[in-house]
Model the fold of this input.
Amino acid sequence: MTRLLGRFGLVIALAVLCAALSAARPSFLTLGNLVNLIRQISINGILAVGVTFVLLTGGVDLSLGSLVALTGVAAALFAHPGEYPVIAPVVAGVAAGALCGAASGAVITVGRVAPFIVTLGMMTAARGLALVASGGRPVSNLSPEFTALGGGQVLGVPVPVIVLAAVAAAAWVVLARFRMGRHVYAVGGNENAARASGIRVGRVKMFVYTLCGALAGLAGVVLAARITTGQPNAGVGYELDAIAAVVIGGTSLSGGVGGVGGTVLGALLMGVINNGLDLLNVPSYYQQIVKGVIIVGAVWMDRSQHKS
Amino acid sequence: MRRLVTAVLLVLLAGCGRTGQGPKQPVIGVSMMNLSNEFIAMLNKGMEAKARELGVTLIVNDAQRNAEKQVQQVESFVAQKVDAIILNPSEVEASSPAVDRAVAAGIPIVNVNSETRSAPSAFVGSRDEESARIAMEYIVKRLGGRGDIVMMHGFMGQAAQLKRDQGAREVLRKNPGVKMLADQTAEWDRAKAMSLMENWIQSFGPKIQAVFAQNDEMAMGALMALEQAKMKDKVIVVGVDSIADALEAVKAGRLDATVFQDAKGQAGAAVETAVKLIRKQPVDKQVYIPFQLVTRDNVAQYLK
Amino acid sequence: MIQAKDISKSFAGVPALAGVSLEIRAGEVHALMGENGAGKSTFMKIVAGQLAADSGTVDSGGGRVAMIHQELMPFLDLTVAENITMGREPAGRFPGTVDRGAMRREARELLARLGSTIDPDRKMRGLSVAAMQMVEIAKALGWRADAILMDEPTSALAGHEADLLFEVIRDLRRRGVAVVYTSHKMDEIFRIADRVTVLRDGRSVATHAASELDERRLIALMVGRELTSQRPAGGAARTETALSVKGFGGAEFEVRKGEIVGMIGLMGAGRTELASAIYGLAPGQGEVRVNGRVATIGSPADAIRHGIAMVTEDRKGSGIVPRMSVRENLTLASLGAVSRGPWVSRAAEAEAARGQMSGLAIKARGPEQEIATLSGGNQQKVMLGRALLARPEVLILDEPTRGIDVGAKTEVHELIRRLAREGKAILMISSEMPEILAVSDRILVVREGRVTAELDPRTATQEQILAHAMPEAG
Done:
């Protein structure tokens, strides 16, 4: 209950924004647009859930955007019609992401290099790998079974939305109910105390970076399916959107505090802003200003709520 | 440990370097704005083909959209005393110093595809306004001079975006029956264009009769959003650049049209001009390669 | 010189101070006494202007007040001189520049007044805690403070270092500076204080001249009742060896089941390093046996698996996870025991937490209270509970009563004895001789990482211990 109330400011910001938008544009509050909106946040949402784990341990992952491109390409290479079953590209994408995440995690834990630097390196290297794997050109001609993962629906719900919901729910269970979740909070809350309590800190870090990479892979798969190509230059800047969603959702950049619930709200808020500004046809230049102001304002409101 | 790493890096670098240069072949330094862009990559391929044909050596550098890097690359070409430079500028202003450096060193420099403020020895490219004009005129014709459209911009403030915007608006001014419902940037990006189109579908619905996207990537994104909303048969979508995906889509009857920017033509002309400059032969200061409209009727000749 | 009237302050609705009034005179050493959570630190911060009171007034008559915190907050990578002149650096010839020569001179002068010869150009990192404290005091002098508030300045000092500090305090008193002082060490109060004010539960209980009080009476005022802390009669002979240690650069000893072995030494004698190495928290080469079997320990996780648990010395740094609840902190080292597969069983966890909270008499609003909001003594009990939940055979306690108040201290001592009676083998590290003498069954003296003597607490004297602990003359 206290956790829910803790996010009260964010819920209010979201409600106010939605009310204002539906007053200005009746088309905002239609089922069609709401489904559309959640589908649009699904990729950022999946990335944000993954990076929530990393931020909770006090780390950071800047390689997400590049991983999305790399894993999208990896998936697309296995998704040409009539070659492999549809599970192959999914596995290829997720595995590629997990592998890159594990590589970052290994350098961070074994080599004791700062996560900022390691994942910055991974950001560049993964982009290069994506270009090499694709020959610098988009990988297209993908099977309809595969692209259904991005554009299809099950009982009227878009597949990306289902993927996000499943990922968020599973992540919530792990963080709130699993031993590993508790270890993640402990490492971010006080790494020395966690180590002294017999927690294998290195394993926890390996876990979060691998998981974050795997989820970036999943996001890459969904993106490739949605835009029906594996694009080596996709995803530029996605990591910052994901981190913004997590921080808006109340997870501390220094670790130990926060959770997936807030992250989903944060991603939702960013989605509503994007969608609303397009619906209102706010000119491109102004959109960026408005976005920046709303993001900082929402976090500010949330934090002042916290203090009282 | 550190020495080991250095050694490994040196070996890697050496492996990347070109080998087997003939003694007398002229050398042309090439700085490309961004080789992970498909069109630029095609441009690069065209130049390499032409260079082989003419027997010149190219040293190709990728500036990765970074004008400052581009200036550095040209500076090192100057230092290496190449015979000529071909510059594919990433920015109008910020890439100008690169041109100045080459001119000051007396090395001929040819700008290809986009312009800089500083005047190079020669320019080879196409007029971006023209591409938008061709696309928009096609839309006006298909709508019979009356209808509502939306337009997707490229990255705001870039030369291509500004010129394509200018070209499209020229046509709109001459055809008051066609109204622009909304225009917004999707930053040349397919995923962003898809989201933008979805949002437009939500706010304008069936009112939209045509979409002009300032490049094919965005046109493909808009196309997919429309197909998912089952509206494609009622909306005309046109892009620019003729990337492979777009050509396939035109062939399949999904995309209505794209505009062919002749990468091979530009690339060939650029290398030829550079070679002429090296041989001190007369050249045209400005070489314009025309755009061509690609529809289902003529798409076959553009697909290789 | 300072008049504080009717100061009240609450945190999140919980009153910390309720109408405290106090007068501090120029040139006196005023001791502020009370259990942890009595409101001493809060009161000091309000007097120093670092915290706003909810109501009440502080009148310092225009004098300057400086405060030296319990947890020192130096800029570790700056020099001593830079730390001393922080915030009022002497201006150089050009605007915005600093006159480093003047800065160094001033720092040297201030340190000299304190009888200290610390090099002003040294980095703070690497200085001893005592030296850092000197720097803090020099900084306060540099601000020409008329009153200096010291929150537990000796909690991290060895005996002779504390003596030096008292010299400085006496010197400050001669210069007319008022010193307000808190400590948990009774003997210090009677050595240094002119007057004593006792706080209890956020209220001022009494102010007395120090000469009017004795230790017994002071403790009674602080806890509101009389305490008896007598050494209980020696237990039965303990024969079964639980822990044996060999190596680690010259340590060889055993701890038997049901036995409390006290380990004492000067600051920097290598006790913590030795304990950390046994526990796998620090590197070290040696052989550890638990119940006769060799235990290969590369990390605390291994140690716990072999039945060794440890409560670390630095509660804030490597003990509590501040933003977690009491429950989560308690079960951190024993999540496996309250889990089924990867799932933490909420019922089992809550039960384990409640068990320790009642068994150790942890005072909290409930298991969900954030641990950072508990008093030091209660945090320490949570640390003890965390170690116990790991069901160890051997318990290593590094400074188990550092920075906690008298009442809680006796409670912790009682708990340690009870655990020993229940059969745990306990290795207790402490810098406080009375504690070692009162609690241990056997005393090991450590110097330069080696065990130099084994003494019987029933016959050992403080002088004897010191003789073994001090570096050989020469």
